[in-house]
Amino acid sequence: MDSPALSEFDLHLFAEGRHWHIYNVLGAHVCRNAGVEGVRFAVWAPHAKAVSVIGEFNDWDSGTHPMSLHHGFGVWSCFIPEIGTGTLYKFAITTEAGRQLLKTDPYGQAFELRPATAAVVTERGHFCWNDGDWLSRRGHWNWQDSPISIYEVHAASWRHHGSGRWLTYRELADQLIPYVLELGFTHIELLPVTEHPLDESWGYQTTGYYAPTSRFGTPDDLRYLVDQCHQHNIGVILDWVPGHFPTDEHALALFDGSALYEHEDPRQGRHQDWGTLIYNYGRHEVRNFLIGSALFWLDAFHIDGLRVDAVASMLYLNYSRKEGEWLPNIHGGNENLEAIDFLRELNQVCQSRFPGTLVCAEESTSWPRVTRPPEIGGLGFNLKWNMGWMHDTLDYLKQDPVYRQYHHDKLTFGLVYAFTENFLLPLSHDEVVHGKGSLINKMNGDEWQQRASLRTLFTYMYAYPGAKLLFMGGEFGQRREWSESRELDWSLLSYPEHQGLRTLVQDLNGLYRREVSLHGDCFRPQGFEWIDCHDSPQSVISFLRTAKGETSVIVVNFTPIPRHRYRIGLPQGGIWREIFNSDSRYYGGSNLGNPFPMPTDEQPWMNRNWSLELTLPPLGAIILRPAP
C-alpha cells in the first residue's frame, strides 16, 4: 500500500495536540511509494533550518537525504527507498544558529543497546496476539469491586541468567509468570522498560517514550511477555514518566536548538533535585507527544495500565524550590495549570479509548480529588498511591513495642481520609533503596520479632481498604537493601523462616481474592468499620470489612505479648472461625491461635450485642468470619 506523504489532516490534529495515533505518523514507518518499498521519516523540529536523515545506508552523511518542511506545522519528512526494518538512523538537525545536532527519533520504536543511541526502524503488525479473551473481559471489568494485588518488578534485577546476564523478556515470561501465578498476584508492575541510557536510573530518565528498552530483547519479545501474562490471567502495568526527561544531548533536550519539549526558563524547565528537564505542558505538540506515548503502550503492547511517576512534581510550580526560584501561574498561585489540564486529558483519553485499563498516580501530597472525575474538579486517575498510610505504618513498626502506645494515631489517622480517594497501598521499591534498608530490616526487634512484624504488616495491608502493591523480594524477607545491579537473594528461600514469609504472602493473596469482604467496597466507606481503635495501651486494633453481605473481622496485636481472653464485640452471633493467622507455624510463627468452633457470647461489648474472647498471638494478626 502506498502511503508516502503526511496528510494535512494528520498535521492539523498534531498541531492541535489531539492526534491520538501520532505514533503511526511521526517517526519511521515502512511503506511503499509509487510501488517502491522504503521508509517514510517524519520529525517535529519547527525551529530547525534544515533536517536530514542519516544512517548506515548513507554512511551517516547529512547531505544525502534532506527532509522537506511542512510549512506552518514545523514537521519535516522524506521517503527513502530500498531500506526497511532493522535500519539504524538518526536525524541531523541544523539549528538557526548553524550548529548541527545529531538526534535520536523522539518517536523511535526501537533503539540500539546503550551506550549506542541510534533508533532502529521497526514494523508493527506481525506479532500474533492470543489474548483476545483477556481484552474482552477487561473492557467490562468492574475494577472497583475486584481484587488488585500488584507485584512490582525491576526486570534487570529480579533474577539473572546462570551466566550472570539479565533475563530477556521471553525468559521473564517463562520464569516470572509461574512465580507470580504461584504467589497469587493479579498484576505485575514493571519499573520503566521505556528506553533509557543509564542503568542506574532504573528507567526513570526516559529517552525513548515509544520504545521498549533493547536490554531485554525486541519489541515483539515484550509483546510475548504481555501476551503470556494475559493468557495466564495476569495484568501488566507499566511505570511511565511524563514528569521530566534527561539532559542527554542525543535526545529531547534542546531538540532543534531551542527549548522545544522543555521550558526555556530554568525556573519552569529544570528539576533541581534530579538534574532533569520539565515538559512544557502548555505546548500542544508536547502534550500530544506524551498522551500519544501513553496510548501507544495501551495499543501496541496491550498494556493494562500506567503508573504515572512523580505526579506531585508536575502539579506544583514550586515543587522542591525556594522562594524566588519559581514562577507563579497567571492567578499568582503555585499550581501548574497546564500540567493539571494535561493530566485530566491523559486520563479521559486513556480510559475512554481503552476501558478497563488503570491509570495510577504516584502523588505524595494532599492534592484533592486525584481520583475523582475532571467534571467535578478531579484529575481523573483510577488509583492513587497512599503514601501517608505507607509512611505512618512503617514509622509505627520501627518503634519499640513498649512505646507504640504513644504512636497509636499512626494506625488510626489513615481512616480519616481512607475513602477520599481510590487508594493503592504501596510497599514499593522506593522504600528499600538509598540507605532505607529492606522491609524486614525496618521492623523493630530481634530476627524473630522482625519476621513476625513483617508477617503482621502484610496481613494488615491485605485486610486494610485499598488495592495492594509489594516490591519484589519483600515477599520472602530480602534482608539486603535492593540494588539494581544484582539479582534478589533467592538463596534465602532455602531457609524455612523465609519460605514461611513467602507462603504467607501466597495465602494472603488467595484469601484476598476469595473473600469478597476483603476486596469488595474497598474504596467506599461502607466497606470498613472500626470495632475498637482505642486500645492504645495494649497496641491492639480491631475492625470489620464488609461487602455484598459478607463480613470479616480483623484483630491485630502489635506487641510481642500474647493477649489471652481478649474480648471483642461482634456484629452478629453464632459460630465464628479463624480463617487466617499470621502466627501460624506454616509461616514460621509460634502457632498461637483460636481453635474452631468459637461460639459467641450474648454479652454486649464495644456497643455490640455479641462478643467473643480471643487469644491474640504475639506480633500477630488474625482474620475471623462467621462459620457457614
UniProtKB/TrEMBL annotation:
Domain Glycosyl hydrolase family 13 catalytic: 152-512
Keyword Glycosyltransferase: yes
SMART domains: Aamy
Keywords: Carbohydrate metabolism, Glycogen biosynthesis, Glycogen metabolism, Glycosyltransferase, Transferase
Physiological role: Catalyzes the formation of the alpha-1,6-glucosidic linkages in glycogen by scission of a 1,4-alpha-linked oligosaccharide from growing alpha-1,4-glucan chains and the subsequent attachment of the oligosaccharide to the alpha-1,6 position.
Single GO MF annotation: 1,4-alpha-glucan branching enzyme activity
Annotated catalytic residues: D309 (nucleophile), E362 (proton donor)
Keyword Transferase among record annotations: yes
Protein name: 1,4-alpha-glucan branching enzyme GlgB
Similarity annotation: Belongs to the glycosyl hydrolase 13 family. GlgB subfamily.
Source organism of this protein record: Marinobacter azerbaijanicus
Gene (name only): glgB
